[in-house]
């Protein structure tokens, strides 16, 4: 007999398996499930075992007693209603209880277990090699997004100090224009108090610092040897939360545009980390 194993994985934030085995190897499902869990930790895993060049008597057995019983009963029924028809034996084998799977004995089961688990391990090693190559490309893509977000952060920091001064100038100019009509002058203390209120309400320094910290943790998790998929997923959610807060507090259109760019990149990161084990 020839055994063929096919293992496929698709994205999933959890671990889920689908195992399809022929009747003669159904007793291996628990062993195969254990192997899959030892080798993989995330994703939907599809495992299929096929048998080739297998003699029919190895897979199925015919219950001759049951088949003979069906034929005798059909013959009696035909004679009782005066119907003379040829009974197709080939069609009778599909009736319940005629074909039964051949279950291997202990010696045969041991040989099947050794062969199937052996090629399953080889298939899993090849799968892990392919996933490692894909992971390297994935890591490069994630690093590209993180570097771009750091550039946006630097631009936001440099712009943040200018925004406060621009707000002060706009406010002073507007108030001076209004007071000029009644020939009054703006109290500098009042202006400073209003600017201070605006500065406190729109201060995003803490959010920028936390977002920078999240990016550092993200890089460290990507470089770590242990499984990082769930951790990266959580960190990306925290990055999105900080970006939303910055967008809601910022009062400058240019900063908002940079934050929108970062949110697009974070959304891309959230999609990609679902592929990370």
Structure explained in plain terms:
The structure is a single chain. The two termini are 35 Å apart. The mean pLDDT is 79. The longest helix is centred in the middle third of the chain and has 75 residues, at 106-180. 14% of the residues are buried. The chain has helices at residues 29-39, 56-59, 64-80, 89-92, 106-180, 188-201, 205-223, 229-249, 253-272, and strands at 2-10, 15-20, 43-52, 60-62, 99-101. The chain has nine helices and five strands; from the N terminus they run E-E-H-E-H-E-H-H-E-H-H-H-H-H. Helix 8 packs antiparallel against helix 9. The chain has three domains: 2-61 and 95-131, no CATH class; 64-92, no CATH class; 139-275. It has 277 residues and is mainly α. The chain is 67% helix and 11% strand. It is elongated and about 115 Å long. The strands form two sheets. A three-stranded mixed sheet has the order 1-3-2, covered by helices on one side. A two-stranded antiparallel sheet has the order 4-5.
Summarize the SSE layout with pairings:
Layout: E1 2-10, E2 15-20, H1 29-39, E3 43-52, H2 56-59, E4 60-62, H3 64-80, H4 89-92, E5 99-101, H5 106-180, H6 188-201, H7 205-223, H8 229-249, H9 253-272
Parallel strand pairs: 2-3
Antiparallel strand pairs: 1-3, 4-5
Helix pairs in contact: 1-5, 5-6, 5-7, 5-9, 7-8, 8-9
Anisotropy-based shape: elongated
What profile does the largest beta sheet have? 3 strands, mixed
Radius of gyration from the CA trace? 35 Å
The helix tally amounts to: 9
How large a portion of the residues is in β-strands, by DSSP E? 5-15%
Question: How many separate structural domains?
Answer: 3
Ranges where pLDDT stays below 50 over 5 or more residues in a row are none
């Amino acid at each position: 007999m020839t055994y063929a194993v096919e293992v496929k994985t698709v994205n999933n934030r959890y671990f889920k398996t689908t195992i399809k085995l022929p009747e003669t190897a159904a007793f291996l499902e628990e062993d195969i499930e254990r192997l899959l869990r030892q080798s993989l930790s995330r994703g939907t895993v599809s495992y299929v075992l096929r048998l080739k060049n297998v003699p029919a008597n190895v897979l199925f057995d015919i219950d001759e007693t049951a088949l003979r019983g069906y034929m005798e009963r059909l013959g009696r029924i035909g004679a009782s209603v005066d119907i003379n028809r040829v009974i197709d034996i080939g069609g009778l084998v599909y009736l319940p209880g005629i074909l039964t799977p051949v279950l291997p004995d202990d010696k045969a089961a041991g040989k099947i277990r050794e062969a199937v688990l052996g090629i399953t391990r080889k298939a899993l090693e090849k799968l892990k090699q392919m996933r490692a190559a894909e992971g390297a490309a994935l890591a490069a893509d994630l690093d590209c997004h993180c570097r771009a977000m750091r550039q946006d952060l630097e631009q936001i920091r440099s712009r943040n100090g200018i925004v406060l001064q621009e707000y002060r100038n706009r406010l002073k100019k507007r108030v001076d224009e209004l007071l000029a009509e009644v020939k009054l002058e703006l109290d500098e203390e009042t202006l400073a108090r209003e600017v201070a209120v605006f500065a406190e309400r729109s201060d995003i320094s803490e959010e920028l610092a936390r977002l920078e910290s999240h990016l550092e943790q993200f890089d460290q998790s990507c470089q770590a040897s242990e499984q990082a998929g769930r951790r990266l997923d959580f960190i990306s959610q925290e990055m999105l939360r900080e970006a939303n807060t910055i967008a809601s507090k910022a009062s400058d259109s240019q900063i908002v545009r940079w934050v929108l760019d970062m949110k697009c990149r974070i959304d891309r990161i959230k999609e990609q980390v679902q592929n990370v084990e």
